[in-house]
User: Fold these one by one.
Assistant:
Number 1:
Amino acid sequence: MIYMPKSPEFIKEYRLLFYTIFVLFYLIFSSNTSWAQNSFTLSGYIKDSTTGETLIGATIRVKDAANGAATNVYGFFSLTLPQGNYELICSYLGYQSKTIKLVLTKNTSINLGLAPQGIKSKEVVITGEREDKNVRSTEMGRIELSGEKIKSLPVIFGEPDVLKAITLLPGIKSGGEASTGFYVRGGGPDQNLILMDEAVVYNPSHLFGFLSVFNSDAVKNIDIIKGGMPANYGGRLSSILNVNMREGNNQNFNYGGGIGLISSRLTAEGPLQKGKSSFLISGRRTYIDVLAKPFLPDRIKGNSYYFYDLNLKANFILGDKDRLFVSGYFGRDILDFQSPINKGVNFNFGWGNSTATLRWNHLFNSRLFCNTSVIFNRYDLFNDFTFGSGGFSVRSSLEDWNLKSDFSWFVSENHVVKFGLNYTFHTFQPGILSGSVGSTNIAQTITKQYAHEFAVYLMDEWKINRRWAVNYGLRAVAFNLVGPYTQLIYDNDTQTPTGNSKSWSTGESIAFYPRLEPRFSANYLINAESSIKASYTQTYQFLHLATSSGAQFPIDLWVPSSRLIKPQLAFQYALGYFRNFKQNSYESSAEIYYKPMLNQIEFKPGANLFFNQNLENEMVFGNGLSYGLELFIKKKSGRLNGWFGYTWSKTTRQFDELNDGKVYFYRYDRTHDMSLLLSYTINKKWSANFVFVYGTGNATTLPDSRYAYRFGYDAKEQEPKLTFIDKYSAVNSFRLPAYHRADISFSYLHKKTEKWESSWNFSIYNIYNRANPYFIYFFADTETMTVKAFMVYLFPIVPSVMWNFKF
Amino acid sequence: MTNYKYKAIPGLALLFLFSCEKEININVPPSKEEIVVEASINQMFASLNYVIISKTVDYFKPDLSMNGFGGAKVYITEGVINGSDTVFDSANRQQFIDLLDSILPGIYVNPFFMGKAAKPYLLEIELKDGRKVNGKTFIPTPAVFDSLHFWFEQSGKDTNAFFYLQWMDGPEQNNYRMAIWNNIDSNLTGWGIADRFYTFDDQLLNNQKRPFQSFNPYKYGDTLNIYLSQIGRKEFIFWDSFRNAANNGGPFATPVAVKSNINGAIGSFTGYGIAFKQLILR
């Protein structure tokens, strides 16, 4: 039996799908320019001429005209133009622009190489032109950062970090210094879909949240979409973070790396067949354990912590029309603890992600590009605890098999149609406990869960005329939680199993949620330097992170939507003004957004999330709302460049079972949030970066009263012995002090020859030693009979150094 | 010296390599006063039969006393279970008296009261100002110890001692609260005098031998009084949430709501089916 909602909305949604497809095809086929007999297509790839790496988002456009195209994530572009003579400008930030002259009389394929700035190239004409995508595209709330930019930012312990870098962007808030979690326009950290070469990374953190799993040496670029999500993306309410790995140099062998205070990196790359295939292997490992071991006393020598990452990638050009990419990530954190006072008591804890992606690019013709991917990803953790009379072992995992196909059909100069499908099979293994104590064996398993997640989408990027462009589309999604599954029935009052259960056979539907997600964005070009954009996005989320804390932990479980847990839903409305200055060397924008969120999940205060067969009983469901204004100005080039972002926002939650049903501030509600990044090239050897961030303090719940309990009378001391318990009232009604700090870094290019390059990076984190709040605790001072509050702050001023090399 | 267990600060050692702290001032608005009841009965120890009535106070009030309510009328009635009905006859009602009113008000005892295993009990309280509180509990059948042994390990100059305890978890034993008092050969005067507390149920291990091993060491020569108690499910939920609340703190702390099982007040009326063992570690 299939459990399906039978509301009239359900029927209405599918009627909407039909209408959308009809309208889309009508618009495409009725377009005057679409099928012009004398139009031809110029298509191909744009690459880095020195390494052969494809460039994502590079532009090619007709000189002194608005016609143009940008490369997709695989470096491919397609541009349809009427027959004629053209002067085309190909450009990419950080690279020398190139002008080519072309007589277009037939469909033409061309591969273009751009040289990085600083590399002398005879064939290059430096045009001084810069891309104006900020103004002309229909995209809103989408920002890209290159791997090189991320590496140049000031960082703590000399570790460049992708997830810390994106929190410098407006609308993206950091979870704090000890957290790689980020919060986008009022959403929680689990509402961000983090993809590494299209594979989902469920836990993106190392070192309990201090660092992210992304090794900056292996990252080509990142691309975050925080609003105006086009129909080819979905699965999370708030944002999509694409982390694209480098492909490796297909011209020459290169080796590089870095030695830092807590970890080192090493990367090898090169051609498998020059110009046609390449590989990249990049590894990173911390060595706190190795360095500390000689200094530890014998009794705790067995204790250690380390993490490692390994990124692998190979790509093969199989011909003019086919390319194959194979990539993988393997990372793990390992914590070993041996009790110094209790021999034989050992605790081993490990967790990590594994991903594997196989991608096949196929060009059906110069106008139809397709990528098909098969992706596997797994997040798992183990927890072994041994002691004299026995031991326990706990295992849990989440595993996905994913097949997706994305088509880009460059129909005409004015229409780019994208369509595709995405199927994922999820396997949730919340926990297996096994072990023994004395003569007693223990074996418990929390029932596995299986789910199918399916999506199809269709969208059209339509340039209506010189001023108007729209991107409209529809994403149809379905989530089906299936058997085999046995649900134990619990008594609501006592929270104990009643002895009854309900079972579903293999493949039988337990909960089925078909949904539609309409997407729309529009751009009205006021003039060559300014435009107004608007967007509407509707997104559903079927996977939810079970965490009761503001931070993300390795033991946090992902749980699927079920009969009780409805899919989360968000609507986002955004309106923005975009303006470029000085021949596009300055970009600026002002965006307002309004984002209601339904079916949000929280846990009851003090919920037991560990190894709980009845986890759903610990959840409560409510709604959220976020709205705000984001201002952004960026100087893209020159010796001094950087950006300034400011956000004013308000984010609230309302749950019937929390805070007496009253609306309360979300923990990461931040009225004011700003970031300033300045990069300055001092001379050929030295460059400097400066970062300043400011954010209103987090909302937090503090006790308003207390009581004495668990009475005992100490006859020796002749006084009572009591335990004090805090009592909380209003949720998140208190504000922590504001967060702000400034960091600075200097890079020194020590030596650069054709065969060897080495540089130093010196960073000072928190230069004015700001005590930023991490958490507050209370202490009962029995001498003065008072309760005192203490604020703990994590990082004072922290200098660090890293040496990077390449040969 | 009064030992006020207030806030544990768990966390990762790494955090504290870098972290610092400073005292801050916080303004919390006045709170609404609520009644707090701690009621305990059992079938074995008279010193653990008591009812304590107190109240909540503003968080930063410079007062760390118990804030007990004196002068209340407190009654406990033993009931009878007839099939699915529980009957409380007022003839079985026993009054608890605030004997220490002038020294430590709010502690109500009855030296002649002793609970019985497998019996239900009703608690009724009426404060001087007329406010009423009531609650019910049940004293479950105690567990039966099966085996107990201990061993020593040398750690520097100290000789650490550990013990292993086993009992039979039967159909009537479901929810446990264990208290261990490391002291001279005498009984608890109020549960709070114990050194270590544990709450656990039998959802992982049911109807078989149940092991317990101490991980934190004792010292050679210590005398341990081990109170292994059976409690009802609602009482277990209270004490489990109480344990979370008492140990809540640090960077990842979340507000914990203690889940009371009495009406009109915060707190618990707990019937303990106690199994007791004394262990001398030498």
Note: The longest helix of chain A spans residues 8-30.
Number 2:
Amino acid sequence: MTELLLSLDQTSIFELLAPTSPGWGGNLLHGFINSIEIGVGAFALGLLIGMGGAHGKLYGGPVQRDLLQVYTTLIRAVPELVLILLVYFAVPDLINRLLETFGYGRIDVTGPVAGIVALGFVQGAYTTEVLRGAILAVPQGQIEAGRAFGMSPTMLMRRITLPAMLPFAIPGLANLWVSAFKSTALLAVVGFNELTLETRQAAGATKAYFTFFMAAGVLYLLLTLISNALIGRIEHWTRRGQPPVAESR
Amino acid sequence: MTHSPTTASENHRPIGWFEPHRIILIVIAITLVTAAAVFMRWDWLPDYYTLAVAGLWTSIWILIVTCVFGFVLALPLGLAQVTGPNWLSLPAKAFCTVIRGTPLLLQIWLLYYGVGSLFPQYPWVRESAFWPLVRQAWPYAVLALTLSFAGYVGEVMRGAFAGVPRGQLEAARAFGMSRWKVFRRVWLPQAIQTALPTLSGDTVLQLKSTPLVATITVVDLYAVALRVRQDTFVIYEPLLLLALTYMVLTGLLVWIFNRLEARIPVRVG
């Protein structure tokens, strides 16, 4: 054990993690912020796709419904890493080919945008299912009653469906947010400078692999725990006015 | 993945499988697949066939081994959180939280680069019988995936163990069963029964996590696809074939779990 501590002590942990230049803490924080940005962007894009998808699956025509079923089934059956590679290479390629056929020059679709699109596209499939389930969990009589009062679809959505489905959707969406944030680590594989890749570079430069990966783990864990706490409060707020449910635990 | 009991289409009207629009969609799908088979480059396939089969086998055995060991590890994790004293339940809870709160890729890299880099400093590790083992990549991959599966399933089993009615356990005790027998005959079977749909989902997630082992030089199916891309500069074809293979594997897993679930009698009220 003393040997282990000595080996860690060769350069002190605090020097390694210092935020300014000789330390690598600044790089880690930069990567952490990148990760959060990508995570938020992917989650937001997933939410947009999911709302459209859930609406289409429930109220769309038969063709739309089948196509959405194919989308959600395929996406959920293939590893995210493979999908990220496919989207990461295919989307910039497609955009540039389109631009070239219309006579514009190539644009460079940069890392963050491609990352957000890749992760958001995957998130969309899961979000679709979560929101579809949540809408179905709303007592359908409430929606019918709203319609019977002559509410327009937007007003129905704003006043009835959205508030009534939120308590059912929040736990699923919370899981998706955490998984979106954790999925940003996968972008390290395509060379995007988020937390995991920054960590690996710092570790490779200093040979203090254990220290840096532990530090990154703490950062990831902090964000997960903080968001869980916040989401708990949000869930409590969405359930206001409802009788307390018998929690499983 | 798991089938939902009601879908909107069932609410409206029964839809037969072969409606006109379905037939058109199927025709379009077949055309796309044929076009892909004819117009895309597949000439690399024979050269990499044996490697791909070996990679597929690696992916599958890693999945099976990590799921089995992970599940065995998850049982005490779940049980400790439900009945254990504080000094057992708190560490179990902390373990599940840490595993579920950090990315799997980071866990794999922490074990392989972090822990793996600590070993060679010690002469006694180099002299021990484990040295050939800790120099390879796959033990780290298996360990990381096992711990990850245990963390996720431990949380599932906690809920499942807690969900078994107390009366059942008390009745079993009243019959004079030993604690171990109560666990084996009453508690565990009922917990697994309720957890099975979630376990099915988690196993599929585990399958989809296996490509991460390619990042620490384990040659699984995904690594083979990357190798093809690097060697031949064919980008999309190997990835598409890879995606198709994972779809088939997912389908197989879901089918197996559905058959398991079908063996359990359910009463729908």
Note: DSSP finds ten helices and no strands in chain A.
